[in-house]
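Hi U.,

Before I forget, here's the chain from the pilot set. I'm dumping it here mostly so it's searchable later in email.
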Amino acid sequence: MDKPIIQPRFKDSPHFRNFWEKGNGKQLIDFSGAEVSFNNFDQFSPYFYHVDEMGDQVVKDVYLAKKFHEASREIEGYIRNGVSEADNVPESVKKLFTQTQKIPDWLDYNLLKNGAELCMRSNLDSLISLRDYCLMGGYDYAYLNKPLVATEALKKGAVKRLSETLDFWVNATRYDALELHAKGYEFAIKTRLIHSYARLSIKKYYKEWDTESWGEPINSWDMMATYIGFSLVFLHSLQKLGNTFSAEEEEGIFHLWKYVGYLLGIPEQLLPDNKKQATEYFYLWTSVQPPSDKDSILLAHSLLNESLENPILKFKFERKNLRYLHICCTWFLLDDEVCKRLEIPDVSAKNLFPKTKMVINKVYDKFVSREARIKKGNKDQMKVLEDYLRITKNSNFH
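Structure:
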């Protein structure tokens, strides 16, 4: 069957125009110097129906051919020890590991280091950005969320989902994390295979999947948008919260996520090198995404209420206060229109906390050395991750 030809179907819709003409999209254009147009639309749109076939074949040959724990142990062995041409392993495994073990010519370890340092240096602002801008803002794109709905992610709960995202992000953004066989490399390969496993399950069991409208489940174009969230949107959020970053750190963030994307099997031509490219790519992708629907609202509220469900904080008043602070940051970082669509509750004095944060960041920037901030940021982020892992591993958060 021929793949459908896709058009920028929402380019004249109010949600698209408002975002790019007066909302965060306009800010991204100003921030990046992007020149947005639909000239390259046909170059990118086929990726709406493109998937990581290499990863899918490994899942068929390993995970679907054995007991799950046996397959997982086997894959872990390949990740830790590597795979060579001489090894007696399925052809698909050879292909995937030949790709991930080949260091691309463009990889620059110094840039990876700069990107990791910015992630650590920005401390809890990094985590606020990921949660209240990147993740929450992503819920406004209705088709992007369909795989989460199809795999019943809501039943799993936001605490577990957040814990997994945090685990992946922290482990991909430390020093030397993406060296072959290191922790970040391991997370990238495992995440890639989880995506393939989910995609094959959706295609087999979820009969309502609408490929023409929604694209293939977890398609390459949606993957590009997700990783632009970790780079472009993340940077924009840090800037909004009063953080500054050098040209090397900025370049480093894009480089780091380009390499993670490469390990995840995203085609290289979809992985931007800088904020100008990222904004131009993102513009095209948003033109095929409708605004929030009822599933988006459920996902957004599940994330908002995570603070109330999460037992990391002992007392109810602390949890309610944390939820309030996340609501304040969400209103501050996202467009009002998006917050209204996602039905984010309106709260009093909502700009007070983010604006105080901006002032503190400017002072902190002036008086605390970069090295001290990297060290403290790493320590604080690791502590948050440990708390989440403790809660999700030792409780009923399935």
